[in-house]
């Protein structure tokens, strides 16, 4: 039988979609989950909803009660001195509730019972109260937390009296019969247990403190969890509480800024549908794809920005080899692990989280009106030596324009183009979720909607999310479950795919919105015939950007479905087997229908020019991409304790992953009517089609061994063997091992006497490991590819030719990591400090080999391993958590320093692009000597063709010529990313009120500010009409101007004059919330009600004069980062 192979050169990877055996496993798991769906979830009338069927023969009452507890969520409380549970009983029950069984058990015994939800208290009748009970008296009290809120369901027991106790009610109150010398033990999950002597008190109120150890105990890592005290890898953990989940955000990535040291979060635009942030862990890992791997609920390669933030429970950032290498070939740039919310034991709870935000540009350019704009033309011509009589705006013309503009504004407009394109944005987030469960099963289900109207016209994005997580204990040692999530989105924009620019600086055809806006004037109309007054030296055929945007409105739709099934089998104590199968399906569709617009209008000649500003033909196009991914994991775990003090954990995983993508496209020009937008509604004289498909596979063998001795000495070894279909046979498999050690030195007896008075905890850890990366390698890199050709020499010959050579030596990029860390806790762990030092060397970075192209000439460049890159840095994380009176507060400060250095490049080095032992893409520019104020300044420098008002460049080598040899390197400055990042989080809570503030910032980056909005060299075309052109440009009257003279074309080249410090400090978020007291909510059947107000990007402190220092530099600099203000509500029933 022929197998479906996606590497035809070596058929060892198979398409799991077509593998019948895998589908049989998936069907079996799905059948087990469907069978478990009959289980009823806990509710307020739980005792009446669950039924039992069993046979009892000469069993003790205690055994029967234990049997009921094992089959349900019931718990029995009793005093064995009062209730005889050792007597034997015999009976049969069939589909009976717990009331019927208790009636049978205690018939004619004098024992009565009281059911409080799932807790059953057994007592004796009043006539049989013994001497012990007669000596007791009733006490009452309330259990509250540190904020004064009642704790519902807290356990209150009498120490030493087996089974005597109760739980607090919805108001945190309890009552109990105890003796005078009794000691109460009060406990609740997440709080420290306390013991309170009763003595002569009749009212005993208790205040519980949060147990910081238990809250921070477990951290999510690859293929499992680990106790934080035993963690020896570099892992940054984010607990997504209601404050983070309630922020007015369109995606998850932008919410991570400033929270984890070493995680660089860069947002370059706030455009709806494109406002996700780029993520980078510990610097630029490679010159290829440096993005970290995203893993959601065990499934890799999930789009982080299509997840509903309200569904996220924990986020872990794996930064070193010890923590990340378990994911092998895609972990070299770090890993971000996300777990979503699951069901909790208890009655079904329904929650709603909603927020409404308005958005405005955080910064914008201030454009001039028509009158001052015309005056700048006078200034420009005066600076360039033009005679006054040659001005197009001659004396009196400007005043005439102003007067006529009041009479005929269509013909004599005064347009604010920034306001024309911008609007108040709106961002709405709504999520409804339900959760519940019992001892047998639990579930979490949610439906969410995010709708964003961008601040730019014709830019809207709507996303719908749904999620269903389900777990079921089928047998005592078998557990099955399912994870399902789906999202659908509609994205509308104008212009090009990123909505603002096609990144082509030579495009003057109106297709680039930023270029076009920079070139229009206030005396150009938004609608109607276009052209305006066309002053001296300006392009009379300039394009109307509004017409272009209004006529070009592409729309993208995406659908994504992820599903997984799993089964866990506890084979015997300490040994478990796990099997899961996951499928991810994605569909992307883009539809575009352009409309032709009118010709440009020449005001001076009062005539149209035969030129269109969208295109000479209207077009219709459809593009569709579908892809799916499958994953099969089989995992074995073994955990054992030897001689009490030695803990061993072992894990082995076999994994297979498969990807397949197919793309098609079609387009036609000459759309016949504006109301039609289908392909066949346009003519066929100009049409095109395209199509392609690609597949990829990965097979992995994974192992991990943990050893913990005396809770002091920690050792971990792991490996991953990955085989990829991207490489030729012999290079497909890569082996990535790691080893890590840790020492909890504060647990040593010989050190405790010196450290215990000031140091609560201390751990030293170190790791070494290797990780792989094949992200830069194409799916057909291992195969020769053919391309269709119509010509062979001068003859028309249809056929195929060889397009690309194969590099049989191409192999994995390898990242070798060394990490040393220190974790410290002071003052009973109120102050915690974590510091990490790391050194990461990436070897064998692959790039298209230009050398092979020069040698052969006829082929596309194959990839080769040609470069090495080193990242070195340090990370610090400080947390202080304490309480002053009734105010709980915390402070977290984190920071990171990273330096990236190119160590090897086995290709032609392009001076000005890469240098060895320098940052990759570093600054290499001319040094300036300021603005020439007089002709004497010009004559005293090397000739450069300058005039007063121009920027002077230094002749660094003194050869009398200004050329590339005069450029200077800046080895300590990174251009693409900052060397230092930091974040500061402040929180406080008092009597239901809470406030949080988040600041983030960056240092160590410089870049040019050369955009179309500070361009003074506009002699050959239009220029941006900003006020800075009037106030900042050098002139004879304004010799202190920060900008060169208007019309200075020699000052636009890269030089240090336009170099700016990109450091900044930003108030990223502030949130104020209030939780309605529980005692009020209990009267209206609510468990939680919170109102909050939030603001994003409130202010930014920076020297950079452009729109935002976080943006990567572009000559088009129009779409800013948004500032938003929101109101929201959280409510649970």
UniProtKB/TrEMBL annotation:
Membrane topology classification: Multi-pass membrane protein
Domain Secretin/TonB short N-terminal: 74-125
The protein's name: SusC/RagA family TonB-linked outer membrane protein
CC annotations in GO: cell outer membrane
Cell compartment(s), UniProt: Cell outer membrane
Keywords, comma-separated and alphabetical: Cell outer membrane, Membrane, Transmembrane, Transmembrane beta strand, Transport
SMART domains per record: STN
Protein family (similarity comment): Belongs to the TonB-dependent receptor family.
Species, as recorded: Parabacteroides goldsteinii CL02T12C30
A Pfam family: CarbopepD_reg_2
InterPro entries xrefs: Beta-barrel_TonB_sf (IPR036942), CarboxyPept-like_regulatory (IPR008969), Plug_dom (IPR012910), Plug_dom_sf (IPR037066), Secretin/TonB_short_N (IPR011662), TonB-dep_OMP_SusC/RagA (IPR023996), TonB-dep_OMP_SusC/RagA_CS (IPR023997), TonB-dep_rcpt-like (IPR039426)
Residue ranges the record marks as coiled coil: none
Highest taxon, organism lineage: Bacteria
Family matches, as PROSITE patterns: TONB_DEPENDENT_REC_3 (PS52016)
């Amino acid at each position: 039988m022929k197998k479906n192979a996606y590497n035809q050169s070596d058929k060892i990877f198979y398409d799991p979609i077509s593998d019948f055996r895998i589908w049989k496993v998936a069907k079996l798991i799905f059948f087990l989950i469907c069978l478990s769906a009959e289980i009823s979830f806990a509710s307020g009338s739980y005792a009446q909803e669950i039924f039992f069927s069993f046979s009892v023969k000469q069993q003790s009452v205690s055994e029967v009660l234990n049997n009921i507890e094992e089959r349900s969520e019931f718990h029995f409380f009793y005093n064995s001195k009062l209730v005889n549970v050792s007597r034997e009983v015999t009976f049969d029950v069939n589909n009976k509730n717990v009331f019927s069984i208790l009636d049978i058990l205690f018939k004619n015994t004098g024992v009565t019972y009281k059911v409080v939800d799932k807790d059953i208290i057994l007592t004796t009748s009043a006539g049989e109260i013994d001497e012990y009970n007669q000596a007791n008296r009733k006490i009452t009290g309330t259990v509250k937390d540190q904020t004064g809120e009642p704790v519902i369901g807290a356990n209150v027991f009498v120490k030493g009296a087996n089974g005597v106790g109760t739980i607090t009610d919805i108001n945190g109150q309890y009552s109990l019969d105890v003796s005078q010398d009794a000691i109460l033990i009060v406990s609740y999950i997440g709080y420290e247990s306390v013991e309170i002597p009763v003595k002569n008190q009749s009212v005993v109120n208790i205040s519980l403190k949060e147990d910081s150890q238990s809250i921070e105990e477990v951290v999510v890592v690859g293929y499992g969890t680990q106790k934080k005290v035993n963690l020896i890898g570099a892992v940054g953990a984010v607990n997504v509480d209601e404050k983070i989940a309630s922020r007015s955000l369109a995606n998850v990535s932008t919410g991570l800024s400033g929270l984890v040291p070493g995680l660089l979060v860069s947002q370059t635009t706030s455009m709806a549908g494109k406002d996700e942030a780029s993520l980078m862990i510990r610097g630029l890992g490679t010159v290829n794809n440096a993005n970290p791997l995203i893993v959601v609920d065990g499934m890799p390669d999930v789009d982080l920005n299509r997840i509903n933030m309200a569904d996220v429970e924990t986020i872990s950032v794996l930064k070193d080899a010890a923590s990340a290498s378990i994911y092998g070939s895609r972990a070299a740039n770090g890993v971000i692990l996300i777990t979503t919310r699951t069901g909790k034991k208890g009655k079904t709870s329904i929650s709603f989280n909603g927020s409404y935000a308005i958005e405005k540009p955080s910064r914008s350019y201030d454009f001039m009106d028509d009158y001052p704009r015309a005056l700048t033309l006078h200034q420009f011509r005066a600076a360039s030596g033009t005679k006054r009589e040659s001005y197009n705006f001659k004396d009196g013309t400007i005043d005439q324009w102003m007067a006529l503009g009041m009479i005929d504004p269509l013909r004599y407009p005064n347009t604010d183009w920034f306001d024309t394109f911008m609007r108040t944005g709106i961002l709405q987030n709504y999520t409804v979720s339900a959760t519940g469960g019992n001892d047998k099963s639990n579930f979490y289900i949610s439906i969410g909607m995010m709708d964003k109207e961008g601040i730019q016209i014709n830019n809207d994005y709507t996303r719908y999310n749904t999620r269903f997580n389900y777990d079921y204990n089928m047998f005592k040692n078998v557990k099955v479950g399912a994870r399902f999530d789906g999202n659908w989105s509609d994205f509308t924009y104008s212009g090009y795919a990123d909505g603002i620019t096609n990144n082509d600086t030579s495009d003057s055809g109106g297709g680039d919105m930023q270029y076009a806006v920079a070139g229009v004037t206030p005396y150009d109309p938004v609608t109607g015939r276009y052209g305006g007054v066309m002053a001296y030296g300006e392009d009379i055929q300039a394009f109307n950007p509004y017409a272009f945007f209004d006529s070009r409105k592409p729309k993208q739709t995406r659908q994504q479905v992820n599903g997984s099934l799993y089964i866990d089998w506890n084979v015997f104590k300490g040994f478990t087997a796990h099997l899961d199968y996951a499928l991810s399906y994605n569909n992307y569709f883009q539809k575009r229908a352009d409309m032709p617009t009118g010709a440009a209008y020449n005001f001076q000649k009062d005539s149209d020019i035969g030129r269109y500003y969208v295109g000479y033909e209207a077009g219709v196009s459809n593009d569709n991409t579908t892809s799916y991914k499958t994953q099969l994991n089989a995992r074995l775990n073994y955990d054992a304790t030897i001689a009490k003090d030695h803990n061993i954990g072992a894990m082995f995983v076999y994994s297979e992953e498969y990807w397949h993508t197919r793309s098609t496209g079609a387009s036609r020009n000459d759309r016949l009517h504006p109301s039609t937008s289908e392909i066949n509604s346009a003519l066929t004289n100009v049409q095109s089609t395209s199509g392609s498909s690609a597949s990829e596979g990965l097979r992995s063998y994974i192992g991990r061994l943990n050893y913990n001795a005396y809770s002091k000495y920690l050792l971990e070894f792991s490996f991953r063997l990955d085989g990829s279909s991207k490489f030729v046979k012999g290079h497909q498999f890569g082996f990535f091992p790691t080893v890590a050690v840790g020492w909890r030195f504060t647990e040593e007896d010989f050190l405790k006497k010196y450290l215990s008075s000031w140091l609560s905890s201390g751990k030293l850890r170190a790791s070494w490991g290797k990780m792989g990366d094949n992200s830069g390698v194409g799916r057909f890199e291992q195969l020769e590819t053919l391309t269709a050709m119509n010509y062979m020499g001068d003859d028309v010959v249809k056929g195929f030719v060889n397009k690309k050579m194969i590099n049989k030596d191409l192999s994995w990029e390898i990242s070798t990591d060394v990490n040393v860390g220190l974790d410290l806790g002071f003052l009973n762990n109120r102050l915690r400090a974590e510091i990490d030092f790391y050194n990461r060397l990436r070897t064998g970075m692959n790039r298209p080999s230009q050398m092979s192209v020069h040698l052969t000439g006829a082929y596309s460049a194959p990839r080769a391993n040609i470069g090495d890159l080193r990242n070195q840095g340090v990370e610090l994380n400080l947390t202080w958590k304490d309480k002053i009176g009734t105010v709980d507060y915390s402070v977290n400060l984190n920071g990171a320093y990273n330096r990236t250095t190119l160590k090897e490049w086995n290709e032609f080095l392009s001076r000005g692009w890469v240098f060895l032992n320098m940052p990759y893409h570093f600054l290499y520019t001319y040094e300036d000597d300021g603005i020439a104020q007089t002709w004497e300044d010009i004559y005293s420098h090397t000739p450069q063709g300058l005039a007063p008002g121009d920027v002077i460049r230094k002749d660094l080598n003194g050869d009398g010529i200004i050329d590339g040899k005069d450029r200077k390197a800046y080895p300590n400055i990174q251009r693409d990313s900052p060397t230092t990042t930091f974040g500061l989080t402040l929180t406080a809570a008092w009597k239901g009120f809470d406030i949080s503030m988040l600041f983030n910032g960056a240092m160590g980056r410089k870049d040019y500010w050369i955009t179309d909005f500070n361009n003074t060299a506009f002699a050959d075309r239009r220029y941006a009409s900003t006020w800075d052109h009037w106030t900042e440009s050098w002139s004879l009257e304004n010799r202190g101007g920060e900008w060169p003279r208007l019309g200075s074309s020699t000052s636009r080249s890269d030089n240090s004059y336009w170099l700016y410090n990109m450091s900044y400090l930003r108030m990223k978020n502030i949130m104020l919330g209030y939780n309605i007291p529980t005692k009020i909510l209990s009267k209206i059947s609510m468990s939680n009600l919170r109102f909050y107000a939030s603001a994003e990007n409130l202010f930014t402190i920076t020297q950079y004069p452009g729109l935002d220092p976080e943006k990567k530099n572009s000559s088009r600099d129009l779409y800013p980062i948004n500032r938003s203000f929101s109101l929201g509500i959280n409510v649970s029933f």
